[in-house]
């Protein structure tokens, strides 16, 4: 009888522990929605930044999250940063896990999102900084530490949950990414060179009144507003002036810019006061998103400005400048 028991004991010893362990060991991390979400996001490392993009040709930050959620855990989620931040379940920083979303205020509102990887690291599509496109960054980096606001989860939802996309509710997927060109330098300085035509609408006068060219250096790294200094050359037929403008400016990532400064007049009509004064020139401008030509970022430039001469009418000094800006990053 004992001889019949030994084979049964041996079989129980060999096969029962694996069967028992199969019941109590949880699913492998690679099978979890969070791991699938992160794995899909990592597939896009190195993809260039592209506003509104969600493909291998280019991605913005919410496009990366949107694509990784669909292809990984199979979630249909909102496409914009703002809608994601509104609908995500807020998670305390001490409780955040890999796969949670990190939200940042980079433009005066929640405008950037990344996917938390753990160990203070996150993957995202960056539109500015020394590295752009889909990259991995550290929350301890000064810019991200300063602009970080909160963490949220889109994965801890009931099975089968599908959030409607913004277009399903009659709205469009508004782009919340800044349209400024991705910064590709290392120091943090952007040089803009602009050349344009000066013109106005004075009745009975030929509209083209001269030309202007200037160069401006701005600090853009880790900044939400870009301070700059510039100098140039202007010829204005309406006032008979040849001058060298010197300006200080503040520019927004959206392309809008305010500038103020003085002008050194080499010559002007005899009845105009050529003395240096402040402000001698003041105005606002807008620069379009870049178009890449021969590897260079070209922008359409438009300003409305006032070139000041004491005692003269507003109509004489008010003018427009329409031209092209070429930008270089260092």
Describe the structure.
This protein is of the alpha+beta class. It has 2 domains: 25-169, endopeptidase fold (from Nostoc punctiforme) (Alpha-Beta Complex); 189-329, Porin (Beta Barrel), CATH 2.40.160. Helices cover 18% and strands 39% of the residues. An 8-stranded antiparallel β-barrel has the order 9-10-11-12-13-14-16-17. Strand 4 (101-105) and strand 5 (110-118) form a beta hairpin. Helix 2 crosses helix 3 (61-71).
Question: How are the SSEs placed, and which strands pair?
Answer:
Elements: H1 2-24, H2 33-42, E1 54-55, E2 58-59, H3 61-71, H4 81-87, E3 89-91, E4 101-105, E5 110-118, E6 121-126, E7 133-138, H5 142-147, E8 148-153, E9 189-199, E10 208-219, E11 226-236, E12 241-251, E13 256-267, E14 281-287, E15 291-293, E16 296-307, H6 314-317, E17 318-329
Antiparallel strand pairs: 1-2, 3-8, 4-5, 4-8, 5-6, 6-7, 9-10, 9-17, 10-11, 11-12, 12-13, 13-14, 14-16, 15-16, 16-17
Quick description:
This protein has 330 residues and is of the alpha+beta class.
- Helical fraction equals 10-25%
Please state the second-level CATH architecture of the largest domain.
Answer: Alpha-Beta Complex
Question: Class by helix and strand content?
Answer: alpha+beta
SSE string, helices as H and strands as E:
HHEEHHEEEEEHEEEEEEEEEHE
Strand arrangement in the largest pleated sheet: 9-10-11-12-13-14-16-17
> Any idea what the CATH superfamily of the largest domain is called?
endopeptidase domain like (from Nostoc punctiforme)
> How many beta-strand segments?
17
Beta-strand content bin: 35-45%
Mean pLDDT: 80
- Give the radius of gyration: 29 Å
